[in-house]
Design a protein that fits this description.
By secondary structure, this protein is of the alpha/beta class. The chain is elongated. The model has no long low-confidence stretch (mean pLDDT 92). It contains 6 helices and 12 strands. Helix 2 packs parallel to helix 3. The protein has 2 domains: 67 residues, Hypothetical PUA domain-like, domain 1 (Ribosomal Protein L25, Chain P, Beta Barrel); 159 residues, 3-Layer(aba) Sandwich (Alpha/beta knot), CATH 3.40.1280.10.
Length: 239
C-alpha cells in the first residue's frame, strides 16, 4: 500500500503534532485514515518526516513523527517560468506540470493577448488556488521544496525584475535550446493562448531575452512549459 504523503504549512520536527484543520479534515474525513496508519509529511524545508497517526477524531488529528530524513534533491538548474495568463484549467495544468518538472518559480504574466484579467479579491483567490495546485503536485511527484508562485504581473514588470544567467522567450523562428551554453539559472517566457505579439517578442529581446524554439510545430500555451522544461532538464538539469 502506497504511503500517504502530505504537505503541512508549518515547521515540523520529531515528536507529536496536531495537524492543521484542512489536512485533518482531508486525512480523517476524505481519506478515512485511522489511528495507527503510517504517514509521511513535509513542510517545504527540504526535510521529510515519517510518523504514525495517534488520534483521528472529528475535530482533531494528531501524528507522532518518528523519523526525519533529507527529501528529494532539487534540480541543479533553477528555472523561473513566466507563463502567459490563460483560462481556468489551462493555467492549472501549466502550473501543475511545471511543478512536477522542477520549476523553482512561476509567475503568471499579463500580456496584450491575455483573455483573463484578475483584480483584487479575485486575484487573491486565484493565487491561493494556484499555490494549492503546486502543493498537490509536490505531494504527488515527491518534491520536498515548493516552487514559489508569484502574483500576476505585467510582461514589462517581469522582464525588468527577473534575474537569470540565460533568459529565453519561446518563438517558432529562432535557434534551438541546445545552441545556448549551460546556465545555472534560467528564465523562460511563454505567451498566453493568443501568443506574444511581435512587438512583445522584440521587447523581450531588448530586455536581454534570446529567442528559442522547441521544434517545427506551434505548441499550445499549456503544452509549451511541459516541453520547454523537459528539454531544459534533459540538457542542463537532472533528467
Amino acid at each position: 500500500m502506497r504511503l500517504s504523503r502530505f504537505f503541512i504549512d508549518a515547521p515540523l520536527s520529531l515528536g507529536q503534532h496536531e495537524l492543521p484543520e484542512a489536512q485533518a479534515h482531508y486525512i480523517g474525513r476524505v481519506l478515512r485514515h485511522s489511528a495507527g496508519d503510517a504517514v509521511q509529511l513535509f513542510d517545504g524545508s527540504g526535510q521529510e518526516y515519517l510518523g504514525e497517526l495517534i488520534e483521528v477524531g472529528k475535530k482533531a488529528v494528531r501524528v507522532e513523527l518518528r523519523e526525519q530524513f533529507a527529501g528529494q534533491a532539487e534540480s541543479p538548474l533553477r528555472v523561473h517560468l513566466g507563463q502567459g495568463l490563460s483560462r481556468g484549467e489551462r493555467m492549472d495544468w501549466a502550473i501543475q506540470k511545471a511543478t512536477e518538472l522542477g520549476a523553482s518559480e512561476i509567475t503568471p504574466i499579463v500580456s496584450e493577448r491575455c483573455e483573463v484579467r484578475l483584480k483584487d479579491e479575485r486575484a487573491d483567490k486565484r493565487l491561493a488556488h494556484w499555490r494549492q495546485v503546486a502543493i498537490s503536485a509536490c505531494e504527488q511527484c515527491g518534491r520536498s521544496v515548493l516552487p514559489i508562485i508569484h502574483a500576476p504581473v505585467t510582461l514589462s514588470e517581469w522582464q525588468a525584475s527577473v534575474q537569470a544567467d540565460l533568459k529565453l522567450v519561446l518563438h517558432p523562428v529562432a535557434a534551438p535550446l541546445e545552441s545556448h551554453a549551460k546556465p545555472q539559472n534560467l528564465a523562460f517566457l511563454i505567451g498566453p493562448e493568443g501568443g506574444l505579439t511581435e512587438a512583445e517578442v522584440e521587447q523581450a529581446k531588448a530586455a536581454g531575452f534570446h529567442a528559442a524554439r522547441l521544434g517545427p510545430r506551434v505548441l499550445r500555451t499549456e503544452t509549451a512549459p511541459v516541453v520547454a522544461l523537459s528539454v531544459a532538464q534533459q540538457l542542463w538539469g537532472d533528467f
